[in-house]
Write a structure and sequence with these properties.
By secondary structure, the chain is α/β, with parallel strands linked by helices. Helix content is 29%, strand content 19%. It has three domains: 79-325, TIM Barrel (Alpha-Beta Barrel); 348-553, Rossmann fold, CATH 3.40.50; 597-712, Immunoglobulins (Immunoglobulin-like), CATH 2.60.40. The protein is built from 20 helices and 28 strands. Helix 12 packs across helix 13. The structure holds 1-deoxynojirimycin. 1-deoxynojirimycin is lined by residues 81, 125, 178, 225, 257-258, 462.
Amino acid sequence: MDRIETLMGEMTLAEKLGQLTMTAAGYAVTGPIIAGDSTEAIKAGTIGNLLNLVGAEPVREMQRLAVQESRLGIPLLFGFDVIHGYRTAFPVPLGEAATFDPQVWSLTARESAREAAADGLAMTFAPMLDVARDPRWGRSAEGPGEDPFVGMRMAQAKVLGYQGPDLAAADALAAVAKHYVGYGPVTAGREYASVDISERTLREVHLPPFEAAVAAGVAALMPAFTDLAGLPMTAHVALLQDWLRGRLGFDGVIISDYNAIGELRQHGVAADLAEAAALALNAGVDIDMMSDAYRRGLPIALARGLVTVAQIDRAVRRVLTLKQRLGLFDDPYRRGAAPEDAAAVGRRRQLARDVAARSLVLLKNHRAALPLAAGVRRLAVVGPLADAAAEMRGPWCGVAEAEGQVSVLAGLRAALAADIRYAPGVDIDGEGMTGIEHALEVCTDAEAIVLCLGEAARMSGEAASRAHLGLPGRQREFAEAVLGRARSSGTPVIVLLFSGRPLIVPWLVEKAGSVIAAWFPGCEAGNAIADVITGRVSPSGRTPVTWARAAGQIPLYFGQRPGGRPANPNDHFTGKYLDVPNEPLFHFGHGLGYGRFTLSNLQVWPRRVTAADTLTVRVDVSNVGERAAEETIFLFTHDKLAQVARPVLELKGFGKIDLQPGGRGTVELQLPASELRFLGAGLEPVLEAGEVEILVGPSAQRSVLLVEIIRVFV
Ligand code: NOJ
């Protein structure tokens, strides 16, 4: 008999429920605290999994208790939110998405996994794959942005990155795709609120990234806190059992979100903890994170006949199988056995700097104010985010310490020999305005002003919904004062905008010379920003989310359907606002560089396809600017006539090209015709005969796209 079956035969019910339980170990600023309660339970074999224990030593000690002092010696599984880095903070996922580079997405995950595994961890609660089309929702920062295709590519890249080629390796983490599914469209962007979307939207937009994660071999999944039309995801039999396990064949572990099983009572679907536990187990949730519902509730649920021992056994087998796949039975101390060498840490910092530079999106660059002239002598660096090293980490920065982060000011001082003067002006989120005068003085005589504005890191991520998406506190007054002064002196102003979402700042974009969406760039923020501002690196980020002009436009995303009365400025009775254009402030995919590109000669072949064909799409790209730069090319399709109205644009691919000034090249993308399928009226995939537009260009702005038409035969 194999190891798992032998153990199954020996385990008591309490030990089995222990394997289905994950509890927090907790840690404080001064160092790890080993939760007293867990210690005894681990020895008793009634806790099988821990989260939030930090440091190779405490992890090893806890593992020793489980392996050497518990009756059956089953190793513990240690999980942590390694979302955009563990010790080394990389850009937030939304910023990383802006690189449109799956290799980057994989690399940062790989490096984060190495770093976290060196502390003994074996599971990360990542990647977060929720498509987010409502920037009020703070968790927009944690995911791929508004588009399901980007989500799919990111899912695949992240799973491969975290898990590596061999899940049992000492540097591999089990990835947890979350939050399954449809958490992004919470009502009014309000955190944890109910979700009510169509089956079609669920299937077309929100499920595909999870399907991609499953196809990539993700080890585990986490249901969302939210309910979908009244059915909480933690208890959603149709989506967990039937779709995920049944249709997608997912046989990995399903781990609840933090206290989510217990919260089935607050949702109003479970009368007590036993019912809550039964609902979750019946839906296929294997591990209970932090509700203690399985240990306390399942024995009662068994007695009431709400669940069976066979169901519990199935869940336990899945957890033990994951531990086996992670190599924990063979060597429970493999992860965290040796500290990383300094060179590995140095390489990781360099990667953090490169990726941060590539995540910056140059939204506007009036009169080519950027890059800064090489001989700049006097610079003013002002604003509440200018010397805010700790904020640069972003909202889910693992255990990255505040001291190790590079602020904008520090980065620019390191990069430039200029006289750099600094003043914060105002707080990120305060009411005080007394610092404005001093900041204006600091700007006097500067040859350029770097104005650092935006959100605090805590304003993004979990429980960080915002109804006002402008600059918090008194930053607008401050910025207007600086911009007004600069206008009269003719000083260029470069705005660095830090946020975990697209902010709504049309006034700022109009008045500032240059604007960079910096998201939260991570530990190397200041150095990466200096690389771009000084021209050492040409900005290449593209926004993975549409930027609205007004909150009333939300949700605003490129993949909308045309409707029966598409907007027409000359016709009153068409789909538009009376008080704001339909057009976004910045389209999905927008982003400038220091080069200037023209696209020509779009070629698509074959022009007549069946499901078995693959389209080749080629476009010539020329850099007619004066600097070397990278261009990103997006491939969209539009099915103009179908049994179900299709979105005006559907993203199907993207590619990049680096070109010297005057350089010419070709970007080639492949598109299997089978990907032109869509869900028909009965929600089954269909490929319809007819014409399909193939559109290629630098963003989702329809007027800049080159178009060819192909014909599909079935
Ligand atoms: C709650 C969050 O929703 C989830 O994303 C996270 O992994 C868990 N807490 C654990 O920290």
